[in-house]
Design brief:
alpha+beta, eight-stranded antiparallel sheet, Jelly Rolls
Length: 1139
């Protein structure tokens, strides 16, 4: 591309010696490390070597640095006559060919760790190696005699809990025919608590809003039988009622819905549990919150409350109960018609207590947070003493018959084992779909890895580890897991006690007390998180490293309820990843990622929405890279869009750059086995050789690369470290408000417990081995902390650190309990002293301070730490996001204007003694800036166009404290008016040419071929100039509004490509006195032509797409034609320096 020299008049004022430095050279021509990668989906076994070569050569031309190859079943557009199935000899040959081509072209090659996009699964995974869950059966026996009883085998069903069957996966229909697995673990016996009564045996009368129903199906303790109920709406609130012969006392209640599918599926219901003495006047006992935090929960849930006695019990479902009417990708009804009914499979009342929300707490379906889910305390008559749980496993024979001399009393016998969740890799073709491997077992993961990689090693030969450089572990979508064969021994090693007496808690029983049971379940979840990190992510990365391969991973991914330490997961892979989206619309940005309306402090205001989830995920990935010493923060980028223009992608990419992303990975460039248009497509923004602007993509990709290059330099600069705490899951939360919020002008990272233990203090600063430094440490808003963490906080404060947060008063878990509580109470009382967060906010301790309740900005001010960035606000809605990195003695600030308005700003940076320069990634140029240095800051005058971003680079020593540049003066030379000749390419559906009296959108032209045109059209016009008009300054051709890209040719010579506003071209060197021929080549994207084809009869369609899900998805959105073409006005301008 011919590089624009619009800023030449200012650039010349930068010292000459500074223009040749390495940093700037690499900024102008970014190296491979800085270039974006792309996901490359092989769709539906439609693969050709010709397509592979053309795809990869186009990536190289476009400036993309590498690809991450997927084999998936989702997507459509091109169908080959011969299918190449996953892991077939032909497929392995195609992989070998790909590796050779990547090596030839110098592209980084990555492969996903399974077919589909999640996670580590395949046909070679044996049932005993797959993802497991605990299951059990129970019988009641009378003791005081020798008991011989056949214990029912626990459910072998592949599903999430008990006997609930797993629904089909993405786009999967029909019942599963997969093999099942079961193994016994323990047989336990305990005296049945006195409050336990089988209320189902009282045979209540069951009625509903629909009339009489089969109540037995709701009381049979099976999750696959039930009754059909209508979905709640504004008109209908369906209910089910139990009427007992006389009032009964109830402490707990559970209900369940039958699972259906994955996308567009049902979910846990929202409603009320109510009680009545007369069947008319009902009082609400507890609310049923439904799905929480934008996740799809397990549709079975148990609630515990203070005991209530009543004769009538009713569960009422409210609107929003259990149904998603819009598909995952914003297409109503895309996954079939919305069902009218759901299957209610269980409504059970318990006289004895159960653990509140035990299904969630035992990780059958995890939540993001558990602190608000404490179980109410119960009397001893409702709980099981831990000392009273007897292990009678050795008394059961191989046939499941228990022979036991039972002491007197009524006993509950539990036979507990484990079966499969049935989780499978997805979305993959049937021949590539198998069980997900056990995520808590290093042994099984190693077996999986070796089986997966062995044929690849044979096929690739020396290219394995040379051309194939990375594995990608995509987002964790393998569902919950709560058992593996050696879980008990791992638990005892890590937590220091035997879990056997507490196993009944995993089936909802209260052991010893409600508080003790919740503590055990806290330890249980912590152990799962430890094993997931070490046995899955850690093992996979270690295996890869032995072979010279490294790992990318989202570990675990956006808004996925995984029992995890997310920062630790990401720290165990080589390149941590986040994810951000484009929009739900197929053609332009929609509010799903409404960047312009999203405040940077969103996470700290507790906004539980999709944007906040992406925000948390990106900040989590960035923090993991910073604290674990990793240079690259990658992101699955622009997910969920369609045919987009670079300008709409830029504004979103810039935003995420300011939050830490420094390597974009396009989602997606589907493999194009054929040359047919608009090409093969997978869900996401389409970046491939068959899009309309494929051969004009390089300037946009260079822009992204320049941003990434500078943002990969040096160290992230932050003042605040937020400690996430010890509760599991430990992930950057978007579902609740984090306090205190960071004051404006300061940046921050998140820390986990592992990294907290690595903190040291130097001159009052908190420092990490990675090189990160912080001024303050903020503790989570909790009163619980382990002695180990409190001792570390004590050491940090004693050595001079400033720590902000409430005083802890107890420990978590049962490790060393109750001594652990005593240690926390004694030490925290000394450390916090008289600080109570209300009247007294600070307590000196050693060389440092504990602060509780004081505003964070005042704390930073007391440390003589002013804002890193401050800016004036010429408009009420002025909003600039920014990021700061330090590279040696150079400070790099990236600032982005996300408003569609110009901003004339004065920006103060916490830098002094160096000269600011403005570096522009769109042009690869830099310019001097007007500035003033005073009071330890440098104030820079900055004008930003709508949605413009810029780097402010402080490198060279300043010899002046103030420097003011002369402004540039723009003056019009001539406007280019109609008529305009517009030429269209052949076979595009448009006429060969048209004449436009004045500039307008193609969509306003009556001819349907023009209205629905997609591609590149050429506007022709002539321009006559005098020699006088060509004197002084530079001549710039301003095209005004363009949709979407433009190339200008003057007298047959190209002035370059512009892909965003302002569409300005320096044409000084191309113009001549006299008549000049002007050609403007304007390109839009495929949306309009696809809409035209959607309404055109067969035989009149222009595009060659094979009908499939992507066309169905497109047609279902109600998309309208988008403004396209040269909209103007077009003016020739003079730009000169004011004298």
């Amino acid at each position: 591309m011919k590089r624009l020299i619009y800023f030449f008049l200012l650039v010349c004022s930068v010292p000459a010696f500074a223009q040749t430095d390495t940093l700037f050279e690499h900024f102008v021509n970014p190296p491979a490390q800085a270039r974006p990668r792309t996901w490359w989906h092989w769709i539906g076994s439609n693969i050709t070597k010709e397509g592979i070569t053309k795809d990869l050569e186009w990536m190289k031309r476009a400036g993309i640095g590498g690809f991450q190859a997927f084999d998936v079943s989702l997507g459509s557009g091109q169908e080959t006559s011969q299918k190449i199935l996953f892991m077939s000899p032909e497929w392995l040959d195609a992989i070998r060919y790909t590796a050779a081509e990547a090596d030839r072209l110098g592209l980084e090659m990555t492969m996903v760790t399974s077919a589909g996009w999640s996670e580590t699964g395949g046909t070679w995974v044996k049932p005993e190696e797959a993802v497991k869950k605990l299951v059990w059966s129970e019988v009641a026996v009378i003791g005081g005699r020798k008991v011989v009883v056949s214990l029912p085998s626990p459910p072998r069903v592949n599903g999430p809990i008990r006997d609930a069957a797993r629904p089909g996966g993405l786009l999967q229909q029909g019942p599963s025919t997969d093999p099942t697995f079961y193994a016994d673990y323990k047989v336990l016996a305990w005296l049945t608590p006195k409050d336990e009564q089988d209320l189902a045996a009282l045979h209540p009368t069951v009625t509903s809003s629909q009339g009489a129903i089969d109540g037995a199906a709701l009381l049979d303790d099976h999750l696959e039988t039930g009754v059909a109920m209508p979905y709640a709406s504004s008109e209908v609130s369906p209910w089910v009622q139990y009427e007992f012969a006389k009032p009964v006392q109830v402490r707990s209640f559970s209900f369940a819905l039958k699972l259906r599918g994955s996308f567009g599926s049902n979910n846990i219901g929202r409603g009320l549990l109510q009680a009545s003495d007369d069947g008319t006047n009902f009082r609400t006992i507890t609310t049923l919150p439904g799905a929480q935090h934008d996740i799809r929960a397990l549709p079975v849930r148990t609630f515990t409350f203070e005991p209530v006695t009543a004769k009538f019990w009713r569960v009422t479902f409210l609107p929003g109960s259990g149904i998603t009417t819009v598909g995952e990708f914003g297409a109503p009804g895309f996954f079939g018609p919305t069902p009218k009914n759901f299957d209610l499979t269980e409504v059970r009342l318990f006289s004895g207590a159960r653990v509140h929300r035990w299904e969630d707490k035992a990780n059958f379906a995890p939540m993001f947070e558990y602190t608000t889910l404490g179980t109410p305390e119960v009397p001893s008559t409702s709980s099981i003493p831990s000392t009273g749980v007897i292990d009678v496993t050795s008394n059961m024979n191989a046939d499941g018959v228990l022979t036991w001399a039972a002491p007197p009393g009524q006993w509950t016998i539990m036979r507990m084992g484990y079966s499969l969740t049935g989780a499978k890799n997805s979305p993959a073709i049937p021949a590539a779909t198998g069980f997900e491997v056990d995520k808590l077992s290093s042994k099984h993961l190693t077996t999986y890895y070796n089986a997966y990689t062995e044929p690849l090693k044979k096929a690739l030969g020396p290219l394995y580890g040379k051309s194939l450089q990375y594995w990608l572990v995509d987002s964790y979508e393998a569902d919950a897991q709560n058992w593996t064969e050696d879980f008990a021994s791992e638990f005892k090693t890590r937590r220091g006690y035997d879990l056997t007496p507490y196993l009944p808690a995993l089936a909802g029983r209260i052991v010893t007390s409600a508080a003790i049971t919740d503590r055990f379940l806290w330890d249980f979840r912590l152990t799962i998180a430890d094993l997931l990190a070490e046995k899955h992510y850690g093992t996979l990365t270690a295996l890869a490293h032995k072979e010279g391969i490294r790992t990318y991973s989202e570990a675990a991914g956006i808004s996925l309820p995984v029992i995890q330490d997310a920062l630790r997961n990401k720290g165990l892979v080589d390149i941590p990843m986040g994810e951000f989206g484009m929009g739900q619309g197929l053609g332009e940005t929609k509010p799903w990622m409404a960047v312009e309306d999203f405040d940077a402090d969103h996470l700290f205001r507790g906004a539980s929405d999709r944007m906040a989830a992406h925000f948390a995920d990106v900040r989590e990935a960035a923090s993991a890279a910073h604290i674990y010493g990793k240079r690259i923060v990658a992101a699955e980028s622009w997910t969920g869009g369609g045919f987009e223009a670079p300008a709409s992608m830029k504004r979103i990419g810039d935003y995420w750059n300011t939050h830490g992303i420094n390597r974009f990975i396009f989602h997606t460039s589907a493999h194009q086995p054929l040359d047919t248009k608009p090409g093969n497509r997978m869900v996401g923004v389409h970046i491939n050789r068959n899009i309309t602007w494929a051969e004009q993509a390089r300037p946009f990709v260079d822009y992204l690369s320049r941003n990434s290059y500078l943002l990969q330099q040096g160290q992230f600069a932050a003042d605040i470290a937020y400690y996430l705490g010890e509760d599991i899951p430990a992930a950057v939360p978007y579902w609740e408000k984090i306090q205190p919020a960071p004051p404006e002008g300061y940046d921050y990272d998140f820390l986990n417990t592992e990294i907290l233990q690595q903190l040291q203090v130097s001159n009052g600063r908190l420092v990490l081995p990675s090189g990160m430094e912080y001024k303050v440490l903020v503790l989570p808003n909790t009163q619980r902390m382990s002695p180990a963490v409190l001792n570390k906080i004590n050491a940090l404060v004693s050595q001079g650190a400033t720590v902000i947060g409430p005083r802890p008063v107890q420990a978590q878990g049962l490790t060393d309990y109750p001594h652990s509580d005593a240690v926390v109470q004694e030490l925290s009382a000394a450390m916090w002293g008289d600080a109570d967060g209300k009247m007294v906010y600070e307590h000196a301790w050693g060389k440092g301070r504990i602060i509780w309740g004081a505003p964070l900005n005042s704390v930073l001010a007391s440390l003589k730490t002013g804002p890193d960035v401050q800016y004036t606000r010429p408009h009420l809605n002025t909003r600039i996001t920014w990021i700061h990195r330090r590279a040696g003695s150079t400070d790099l600030y990236f600032l982005s204007n996300h408003r569609r308005q110009s901003e004339q700003l004065r920006v103060s940076f916490r830098v002094t003694g160096r000269v600011p320069e403005l570096w522009h990634a769109d042009t690869g140029t830099r310019e001097a800036a007007s500035y003033r240095i005073e009071n330890g800051t440098t104030e820079v005058a900055l004008t930003l166009s709508p949605e413009e971003s810029v780097f402010v680079v402080f490198a060279q020593p300043a010899t002046l404290t103030e420097h003011v540049l002369s402004p540039l003066i723009e003056s019009p030379i001539q406007e280019l008016k109609g008529p305009w000749q517009v030429q269209f390419p052949e076979k595009s559906g448009a006429p060969a040419s048209i004449t436009l009296p004045q500039l307008t959108s193609w969509t306003a032209v009556a001819d349907e071929g023009v209205r629905f045109f997609s591609g590149t059209a050429t506007y022709s016009q002539s321009l006559t100039l005098t020699a006088e008009q060509l004197r002084n300054g530079h001549q710039v051709l301003d095209l005004g509004d363009v949709r979407d890209l433009a190339e200008v040719r003057v007298n047959g010579q190209s002035a370059g490509v512009q892909w965003k506003a302002p569409y300005r071209f320096d044409v000084s060197a191309l113009l001549k006195a006299g008549k000049n021929q002007i050609e403007i080549l304007v390109t839009n994207q495929w949306t309009n032509r696809m809409l035209g084809d959607a309404k055109a009869p067969q035989g009149q369609k222009v595009l060659q797409s094979s009908p499939g899900m992507m066309d169905m998805l497109f047609a279902s959105t109600g998309q309208q034609p988008l403004p396209s073409g040269l909209l103007g006005p077009v003016q020739l301008m003079r730009v000169a320096k004011k004298h």
